[in-house]
Amino acid sequence: MKSAIIGCGSIAAVHAKSIMKMEGCKLAAVADVIPERAESMAREYGAVPYTDWKQMLEKEEIDVLHICTPHYLHTPMAAEALRRGIHTFMEKPPVISQEQWETLQRAEKEANNGAALGVCFQNRFNPSVAAVKEWLENGEFGRILGARGLVTWCRKERYYTESGWRGTVEKEGGGALINQSIHTLDLIQYLIGKTPLTMEASTSNHHLKGIIEVEDTMEAYISYGEEKACFYATTGYVADVPPMIELECEKARVRIEELKVTIAGSDGETKTIDYSGREHLGKSYWGAGHMDCIHSFYESVEQGKPFSVGLEQIKDTVWLMLKAYETAGNV
């Protein structure tokens, strides 16, 4: 299959390397509005560089398109690719508004030539998460009573001012939640596996007042009925600490920190299982699931089967994200 990437920033390299590791796949073209970035990536991977992504789609016969651009461009680019009948794999977040969500759903439904759409919630493919998900489904820990998620990272002024789009409601769509901690929110939703009933959130800007329009901190409370979840995320810390998800279950307390799982049983015994050691692409806090997620999408395309992280599978995560900003007064 011939693949192409739009957006040649840091995350694009992870996508490119994942493509190159698949037999029968070739990165044929890349596009970026900054010519030097497109040319550099094209040289490294033997692709054709473009500065106009639509021109790339017109000239190249592309089977799969990877969207690695600023947030506000994800939905319109995906909709156009699906209209052209091109399988599309997009980075998070899939949307930044309810309007975009409706547009993306419609584009997927009306896609030509059976084009598939996948979203890169790669942490679902982390071996630590996969193991906990399997144990939960097998009833190892009994019923989930509650969950909490914690993300404390560091994003300084330059991260926003040098990007041209981060830190703005119009182009980023939000801050600490939609950019840095949406994966943690997604994993809470994925592991609990029930439709959320309510979401209430509040936001703050503690350390970048006057520099960014969006939040550097968010706290949220989610109800699934009997199960409750608490969530906290900030980019105002001094370092990028591994995100933490903890599940309080009937028979155990289960904590996931990147590739480590700690299980505190009701019998008083505690054990930690470390899933480190496998091949890792990109920064450690991005998780270890990018390659597996991308390869799984290609496999689903080749076999004509639904991808496990399509719009249907992430609709509750998107609802939580949009509801958080709505209740916090950001929309």
UniProtKB/TrEMBL annotation:
SUPFAM superfamilies, A to Z: Glyceraldehyde-3-phosphate dehydrogenase-like, C-terminal domain, NAD(P)-binding Rossmann-fold domains
Domain GFO/IDH/MocA-like oxidoreductase: 130-254
Record-linked Gene3D superfamilies: Dihydrodipicolinate Reductase, domain 2, NAD(P)-binding Rossmann-like Domain
MF terms in GO: nucleotide binding
Gfo/Idh/MocA-like oxidoreductase N-terminal domain location: 2-113
One Pfam family per UniProt: GFO_IDH_MocA_C3
Protein name, UniProt field: Gfo/Idh/MocA family oxidoreductase
